[in-house]
Amino acid sequence: MNSQLGDLRDLRDTAVLIAQETAALIRSSTTREVMATKSSSVDPVTVVDTMAEEHIATRLAELRPDDGLIGEEGNERASRSGVSWVVDPIDGTVNFLYGIPEYAVSIAAAVDGEVVAGAVVNAATGVVYSAAAGEGATRDGQPLRCTTVEDPSRALLATGFSYSASRRRAQAELLTRILPQVRDIRRMGAAALDLCRVAEGSVDAYYEHGINCWDYAAGLVIARESGAVARVPRLSTPGSLGEVTFVAAGPLAPALTSVLTEAGVFTSLGR
Ligand code: LIP
């Protein structure tokens, strides 16, 4: 990568630094006050979501003043450097609200619409996942490799469901076609961590319709760098279009793609 954009490892390390700071701020917060809802009455924004994103935006402006920003909670800035940061201050907000320790700070760097580095920090446990393109993926500094399973009937799939009731109905119908053909599914509630689970091998694949770029951007580069295969929307595609985000362990991808194609997974699910 040319000097203007800096080194991919520097972008990764910046993402890790700010994500760890933000996770510590979230852990120290004493409120779970919901200040608003977004796409539906069950799509909450807490005071902590907003505070966390403000911290991330401030720190990126300090450390990377020429870079752009796309934040889930509305922080946006045009890029002058060619790098744009894609940020979810708390991915898994409902888990955060209920005190389920599966929610994360997700910070990714993208160049020309491609994610090149990122960090996902589980804000409840402090576990740090990170990657830079061509540099591998790690969890707390240890290298990550996805699983070697090839047969979909032996595969454990992570998935998720929408804040829209009509889309959840369609997702449930889709699931009835998939579940008998795989080992089992897990619904943990945070796409960023689901993608890191593919990278670490605690699930074999993940798919979900209608998530946004900030949900998957950092987890995508972490999963790819662990040997996973990904089929994802363009970063500019809004989640409202219902396109699928699909990531699978490399050896599993061909056969699982066939099973999911037959089930209709690669057809967008409207609202
Ligand atoms: C969440 C995603 C999750 C999805 C939830 C929600 P949020 O993001 O990470 O995969 O199933 O419906 O979209 O809203 O917590 O940032």
Automatic annotation (TrEMBL):
Keywords: Hydrolase, Magnesium, Metal-binding. It is an enzyme of class 3 (hydrolase). It comes from the Bacteria. InterPro entries: IMPase (IPR033942), Inositol_monoP_metal-BS (IPR020583), Inositol_monophosphatase-like (IPR000760), Inositol_monophosphatase_CS (IPR020550). Its EC number is 3.1.3.25. Its cofactor is Mg(2+). The keyword Hydrolase applies. It catalyses: a myo-inositol phosphate + H2O = myo-inositol + phosphate. The keyword Transport does not apply. Belongs to the inositol monophosphatase superfamily. PANTHER family: INOSITOL MONOPHOSPHATASE (PTHR20854), INOSITOL-1-MONOPHOSPHATASE-RELATED (PTHR20854:SF4). This is Inositol-1-monophosphatase. It comes from Corynebacterium suedekumii.
